[in-house]
C-alpha cells in the first residue's frame, strides 16, 4: 500500500506542486478573493480541489446518519459501515438498522459551487490564465462531480430539481420565483446524470501520472456511466415490484418509467462498459493465479495497492493524526482483539453468516452454486436455534443437544477449500491474521449436556482447563465476549471478522484517523459484472452473451475457479455479491432491484455461526451452531418498508416541492 500520499481530493496533488508547504502557507480559501484564485492556474486548481472534496463517495468516512467526510468522534455512528444496513454484516453491538435509516443528502449548495466553478473556469480560459486544454479538462472534472452529486440525489429521491447553471442573473431579473426550480421526472433526472457522464468523458485524459495520479480519467467517467445506467435500468424494470401511490407518482417524479426506458438504460450500460473494457487498457489484477492460496493472497492485495491495473477511481488518505481531516479509522475500528494495537474501539465489523454461506467450494462442477458451511450430518443447513443466548431455556438446550452436528478437529476445518474470496474478505474462526491464530469460539458443551455460551466460564476435564471462549484472557480470543449483554462490542457477535481492506502484516497505529488505506470506489470487475447483468436483463437482445459469459468467468478464474459457469441472472447476481462483498454495493443493489422489502420482510432475523467446543466425548471436538443473530432477535427482527425506496424531500414547507410517498 502506498504511504504518505495525498488524497485524490488533495489540493497539493491537483496543483501539481512538488511539496505541500508552499500552498499550505497561503491564506485559507475563505480568506482568498475569487479574483486572486482565478488569477493563476494554481489558484484555479485549488478551487477544483475543493470540488473534489464534495464528491459524495460512500467511503470509509461516510456515515448514513450524519453524512459524508465525517471524521469527528460521535460515539456510536463513527463505527458504522454501509454493509451494516444489509445482510452482509452488522456492527458488533447490533445497533444499526436496515435499509434507509438516515441517508439524507441535499447538496444544492455544493451544486451551486460546481456551477460557479464552471463559469469561472470559462472566464479564466478567456483571460488566458489557463490553457484551453487544461480548462476543458477541469470543466469535464466538474461535470463528473455534478454527475456524482445528482446520482447521489436521484438514487435517494427520484426526480429532483435540475440546476445546471449559476442562477444569479435569473434572480436579479425575476426574483425568487425565477430560481424556484421544480422537480424533474425521475426519468429525466436519470438522463441528466448520464449526459453529465458523457460531458465529463469528453475532455478527460486516458491516464494520469505523477502529481495528477488521483485525478479522474476518461475511464472513471465511463465507469460511473456504467454504474448509473444499470441503476436506472433496474429501477425502470423493477418499479412495479414495489409500486407506490401519490402525487409524486402521478407526476412521475418517482417511477413512471417503462420497459422501453429500462432497455434504453441497459443499452447505455452495455455501451459504456464495452467501450471502457475494450479501450481503457485496464485489466483484472493478477487474473490467473496458480493456486487457490495465491488467488486469496492476490485478492486481498488488490485492496491494499491503490495503483494496480484494475482500479478506475479511488480515494487516498494521509495519516489524520498529523494531517487534519485526512485519515480514517477503518483498521482501528475493525481489527480483532487478538491483534489490536491498543485502539479504544475494535472488532466492530461483523460479517453475517448469510454472506459466508454464499461462497463456493472448488468442486468446479460448472454450476456456480453457493456451498453453505457444513455443520450437520443430515444436511439440514436451514435450521437455526432461536434465543441461543438464553441458556436457561429448555427448548434451546434440547435443540442444541439433539442437533446431529459434524464434529471437527479444529476451528478452521469447516472453511478449508472455500472460495479464495471468502478467505481474503472474511476472518473465519481458526484462520491466521498477521501470524496470529484467530480464536473465535462462542462456548462449550459439557459432559452433563449443559452448555455455556457468550461468557468465558471455565471447566475441567481429564485434568485440563477449558474456556468457553477459547482462551483465558480477553486479549487471547476474538469472539462473543458478553455478547448477551451487548456491552462488550469489541468482540465479534456473528462468528466472523473482516479482512477486506485490512492492512494485514503492516504496523497499525492505535490512534483514530491514522488509517491510510485507499478506498476503491470503482474497479474493472464491477464493470464486467455491470455488462453481464445488463446483457442478461435487457429485453431487446442487446449485448454479447458470449462476451458477458467470458467476463463473468474471468472474475471467477481470478478467484481460482477453473470451470465455466453459464450466463444466468442468478449466477451474475451471486458473483456480484461474493466479488464485491463489503464494498458498499449490496445496499444499492437491493434498492435498485427492489429486493429490499422481500429480503427483509416479516421481521427477518439475520444469522450467526457459533463455534463451540464439545466436551462430551473422549476427545474434545468443535461443532458449529447456526443461530439467530441476537442483535436482530432482541429487536424483534428487521423489516424494510416499501416507502423507504425513496427518502423524503427535505424542507418542502419552504421550497414548495412535491413530497415523496409516505412522508
Share of residues in strands: 5-15%
> Which secondary-structure class do the elements indicate?
alpha+beta
Enumerate the strands of the largest sheet in spatial order, edge to edge or round the barrel: 8-7-13-14
Number of helical stretches of at least 4 residues: 23
Low-confidence stretches: 1-30
Helical content stands at 25-40%
- What distance separates the N and C termini? 45 Å
Could you describe the largest sheet, including whether it forms a barrel?
4 strands, mixed
Number of beta strands: 14
Mean pLDDT: 92
Oligomerization status of the protein chains: single chain
**Rg calculated over all Cα atoms:** 26 Å
What overall geometry do the principal axes of the alpha carbons give?
globular
Could you explain the architecture of this structure?
With 663 residues, this protein is of the alpha+beta class. It is built from 23 helices and 14 strands. It has helices at residues 11-15, 21-24, 34-38, 41-53, 108-127, 132-157, 168-174, 186-202, 218-238, 247-250, 259-279, 292-302, 330-334, 353-356, 394-402, 420-425, 524-537, 545-558, 569-579, 585-592, 596-599, 630-633, 652-655; strands spanning 89-91, 311-315, 349-351, 426-427, 432-433, 436-437, 443-445, 451-453, 458-461, 464-467, 497-498, 519-523, 607-614, 621-628. Strands 8-7-13-14 form a four-stranded mixed beta sheet. β9 and β10 (464-467) form a beta hairpin. The longest helix has 26 residues, at 132-157. The chain is globular, with a radius of gyration of 26 Å. The two termini are 45 Å apart. The model is unreliable at 1-30 (pLDDT under 50).
